[in-house]
Design goal:
Elements: H1 4-14, H2 29-50, H3 52-55, H4 61-77, H5 82-95, H6 103-110, H7 121-131, H8 146-155, H9 164-184, H10 196-200, H11 216-229
């Protein structure tokens, strides 16, 4: 474990003395100093795991310091949290990697929903699809996570209006945006929902004549809608 003196040294390495200035990439020195312990932790653990292989990566102290500054900028930009670093380190050990990961690889290891207590992306996508299909009129519905509920409120209505591939692209874009908000602590609260009785009075999900016969998603949702509502509600 690094001493407070080591952490102070890393902070000085990552940022210049002024707390009000910004780097060429727009990162404030205050932010660089705040992320310094996390960078110190990551590099320290990588050194413990890889030993001489890790030490051989850097030919000089200047190169090591420059590398830490680059990692710090990336951590700030991606809003990397301590639990993500811990998760990435554990994945490195579990995968039995032979060489220390480069920055892009380490960021990919951090970019795991499980590290943030989130469901897998494919699970979130499937729940949104199900919510507009077989669970459309289930009033007491439990979302996997608040992130999934917010994404659904933003784009869920497109499920029955787009081909599966188009909606998945839309979902991927929204997933990335909402995850960024979640990591930054700016995720909005879900909006209040319509009651079950009001929802049942809404028009059909999509008129039968608009269903694309070549789109299996639309056909499946139309079938689920009919099963759930019954002819009397259409």
């Amino acid at each position: 474990m690094k001493s407070p003196q080591d952490l102070q040294h890393i902070a000085k390495t990552l940022a210049t003395p002024s707390c009000k200035s910004t780097t060429a990439t727009g990162q404030s020195d205050t932010a660089m100093q705040q992320v310094a312990p996390l960078i110190n932790q990551a590099f320290g653990q990588l050194q413990l795991i890889f030993g001489r292989k890790y030490a051989s990566r850097f030919t000089s102290k200047n190169e090591l310091d420059a590398t830490k500054r680059m990692w710090a900028k990336a951590f700030i930009q991606e809003a990397i949290k301590p639990e993500q670093v811990a998760h990435a380190i554990q994945r490195i050990i579990s995968a039995k990697l032979e060489w220390p990961p480069e920055l892009p690889e380490f960021l990919n290891l951090c970019d795991d929903p499980q590290a943030l207590g989130l469901p897998e992306k494919h699970q979130a996508l499937q729940q949104i699809i199900d919510r507009h299909g077989k669970y459309r009129f289930v009033e007491q519905f439990t979302w996997l996570h608040r992130v999934v509920e917010v994404i659904n409120q933003h784009i869920g209505h497109h499920v029955t209006q787009e081909a599966a591939s188009s909606f998945e692209r839309r979902f991927n874009t929204e997933w990335k945006r909402i995850i960024t908000q979640f990591k930054a602590g700016t995720l909005p609260e879900p909006r209040p929902l319509l009651s079950y009785n009001i929802a049942r009075k809404l028009p059909p999900v999509i008129p039968q004549q608009w269903i694309d016969e070549d789109c299996q998603l639309q056909k499946r949702l139309a079938s689920l809608r009919t099963q759930q509502r019954g002819p009397a509600h259409d």
